[in-house]
Write a structure and sequence with these properties.
The complex is a heterodimer of chains A (about 140) and B (about 475). By secondary structure, chain A is an alpha+beta fold. Chain A has 2 helices and 8 strands, in the order E-E-H-E-H-E-E-E-E-E. In chain A, the strands form 2 sheets. In chain A, strands 1, 2, 6, 7 and 8 form a 5-stranded antiparallel beta sheet that branches. In chain A, strands 3-5-4 form a 3-stranded antiparallel beta sheet. The two termini of chain A are about 25 Å apart. Chain B is of the alpha+beta class and about 475 residues long. Chain B is built from 16 helices and 19 strands. In chain B, the strands form 4 sheets. In chain B, strands 7, 8, 9, 11, 15, 16, 18 and 19 form an 8-stranded mixed beta sheet that branches. A 7-stranded mixed beta sheet of chain B has the order 1-2-3-4-5-13-12, with helices on both faces. Chain B has a two-stranded antiparallel ribbon with strand order 6-10. In chain B, helix 5 packs across helix 11. The chains are: A alpha+beta (about 140), B alpha+beta (about 475). Chains A and B meet through helix 2 and strand 6 of A and helix 8, helix 10, helix 13 and helix 15 of B.
Chain lengths: ~140, ~475
């Protein structure tokens, strides 16, 4: 399981890869954090819970990313560790992190939203789950 | 761009011929070089927008157009509510009413030079910027609702500015028809402590010096002289606008089928103007516009406070404030008739010509100031709207330089410290809490704004008035 960024002209694409769809969602969240800061500098001090629901897996991924953006914004927190459970159309998750600290977290840029651009959730030929989208910064 | 996709119709006008499901032609403005460098996806997105119901005249793209979400960035399209016209969340974007406010300071470059460092530090301390920053203002939901209805007027009434500021803001500081009951609780919660914050990314607050005047008469009317010090603020509607964008993108995408809309891409999510979702978005999006106008008003007030401390000779007055991510109800002439249309400008600046009632008296003869931001190392421009522009693309012009390199590529190529050091040696002071942010925003990661402005001028979309260069830049 891993994450990566992919190229988009003005913005940036985030991609999570995992053996299970849950792992891919968790890695996708790390990819999001890596747009905003250096996730390895973010300590898992506080835990919050997130729930979202969507009919399709790809839309669920966009909702998951948007839920994280929302939580970061209202709590002024960054996250580095994630635990995702998906049952049918419903996602329940825990995210661990700490308050945003410009001196510690090597901040780069806020993410405004997950977009539907390049939004995908699928199993590739190697039986790996891939979830991805472009985020607007 | 694959040149087979467009047909040249003049020095700076390129036709995307109506075909397939397109209801109107597409028109892209730009010099030959800008068109050659433009992404093919711009043409695809111009075509997609042209296929939406109720579109009138054409689907337009400005000279700084690039691949966006649904609409291209730099996309302009007007819809007729009487012909099944639609409104699109993607046609406005996630940063509702992101825009530029430019201020007079009453100072000349020689006044600023000896105190540049001091001003840079004072602004950096005062202006909340960057990831996770909050403003001093703490709002309750009911006070926020008032702000969302009244825009910059709310800010002035609450002590952030003076009444005279309002006449120099698009829509005189307040868009009517804003309906806070259409804004989600989540969107409001994100904004309770984010008023008066700059944001991050390409947002900035700059002290600029006027280095060139192109149009003496317009410059005189706008109050611009060579060597003047101006201040420009580029930011938008913060968390509230982002959340409204996300909320309605989803609602419009899932309701499209019900409205009989076939979307060529999901990002083009839209709804008929007379549908419940369409009306709801209009009410919410207008709150986003008012939020952005109030936000820039509060930031201007913070600038006044800083200058009162460090350069008391300064007289901070508003030149103009105009957004570049909006959908607004405007009267335009189409097919020889005056019609109320809903004009989407996604990464495009309104550029009205002379004699529009809404313009302040001082600008009536000249046209609306069009404020174009560059990068922290290059130039910004002030242009004036033209009557011709109203015939070309509903009175619209470009909005900035546009990136030509991804953020990741920029951080691989440059280090923030190195970029800030190089700019300092050129006389430009950068202040930011994020070295990575500076690298991602390095001037080299953007297209040449001068070429975009030149093409805008040559196309007649707006006329060049003045060129400004940065002296101090506060980045998120």
């Amino acid at each position: 399981m891993t994450w990566e960024h992919f190229h988009h002209q003005a913005d940036i694409g985030i991609r999570g890869i995992g053996d299970t769809v849950e792992q891919a969602f968790e890695e996708g969240a790390v990819a999001l954090m890596a747009v905003i800061c250096s996730p390895e500098k973010v300590e898992a001090k506080e835990c919050i819970e997130i729930e979202c629901e969507a009919d399709e897996k790809d839309l669920l991924f966009a909702d998951w990313i948007n839920a994280l953006i929302y939580e970061m914004d209202i709590r002024k927190m960054l996250f580095s560790r994630f635990e995702v459970h998906i049952e049918k159309h419903k996602l329940t998750a825990k995210a661990w992190g700490e308050k945003t600290d410009p001196d510690k977290h090597e901040l780069a840029v806020e993410v405004k939203a997950a977009t539907f651009m390049e939004l995908k959730a699928y199993k590739d030929n190697d039986n790996q789950w891939i979830v991805q989208c472009v985020v607007d910064v | 761009m694959n040149r087979k996709l467009v047909k040249r119709r003049g020095e700076t006008k390129w036709l995307v011929e109506r075909a397939g499901k397109m209801n109107v032609n597409g028109v892209i403005f730009g010099s030959e070089q800008l068109i050659n460098e433009m992404d093919d996806m711009v043409v695809q997105q111009v075509r997609n927008v042209a296929s939406l119901p109720g579109i009138v005249e054409g689907s337009f793209a400005m000279p700084d157009a690039h691949w966006g979400y649904g609409f291209c960035i730099g996309g302009v399209a007007a819809f007729d509510p009487d012909k099944g016209g639609v409104i699109s969340a993607g046609g406005v974007g996630f940063d509702i009413a992101c825009g530029v406010r430019t201020l007079h300071t009453g100072l000349k470059s020689e006044d600023i030079h000896p105190i540049r460092e001091q001003i840079a530090e004072a602004l950096f301390r005062k202006i909340p910027a960057g990831v996770g920053s909050t403003g001093k203002l703490r709002l309750s939901v009911s006070r926020l609702d008032d702000l969302l209805t009244q825009g910059a007027r709310w800010a002035v009434e609450n002590g952030y500015g003076i009444k005279d500021d309002l006449q120099f803001i698009e829509a005189r500081g307040c868009i009517s028809g804003a309906d806070p009951s259409q804004v989600s609780d989540q969107a409001k919660k994100r904004q309770l402590n984010e008023m008066g914050t700059l944001g991050s990314g390409n947002h900035y607050l700059e002290i600029q010096k006027v280095v060139e005047i192109f149009d003496k008469e317009a410059a005189r009317a706008f109050g611009i002289e060579k060597d003047d010090i101006k201040i420009s603020i580029h930011c938008g509607s913060r968390g509230l606008g982002h959340q409204i964008g996300s909320d309605f993108l989803k609602r419009m995408a899932t309701s499209a089928k019900k409205h009989g809309l076939e979307l060529p891409e999901r990002e083009l999510a839209c709804a008929p103007l007379d549908s419940p979702v369409g009306k709801s978005y209009l009410g919410a999006m207008r709150c986003g516009i008012n939020c952005a106008l109030a936000n820039r008003q509060i930031l201007m007030h913070l600038v006044r406070e800083v200058f009162a401390d460090v350069a008391s000779k300064a007289n901070i007055q508003l030149l103009y404030d105009v957004s570049h991510n909006t959908c607004q109800e405007e009267t335009h002439t189409t097919n020889g008739k005056s019609k109320k249309l809903f004009v989407h400008r996604k990464g495009a600046t309104r550029a009205w010509g002379p004699n529009r009632e809404e313009l302040p008296a001082e600008y009536q003869r000249i046209g609306q100031p069009v404020l174009i931001g560059g990068t922290m190392g290059t130039a910004s421009y002030i242009l004036a709207g033209t009557t011709q522009s109203e015939r070309l693309a509903f009175g619209s012009a470009c909005h900035g330089a546009g990136r030509n390199m991804s953020r990741r590529a920029a951080t691989k190529k440059w280090h923030g410290k190195e970029v800030a050091g190089r700019l300092a040696s050129e006389g430009i002071l950068i202040r930011s809490r994020s070295m990575r942010g500076i690298a991602e925003e390095a001037p080299g990661a953007y297209k040449d704004v001068s070429k975009v402005v030149e093409a805008t001028h040559n196309a007649g979309l707006a006329k060049k008035v003045a060129k400004l260069v940065p002296l101090v830049c506060i980045k998120g």
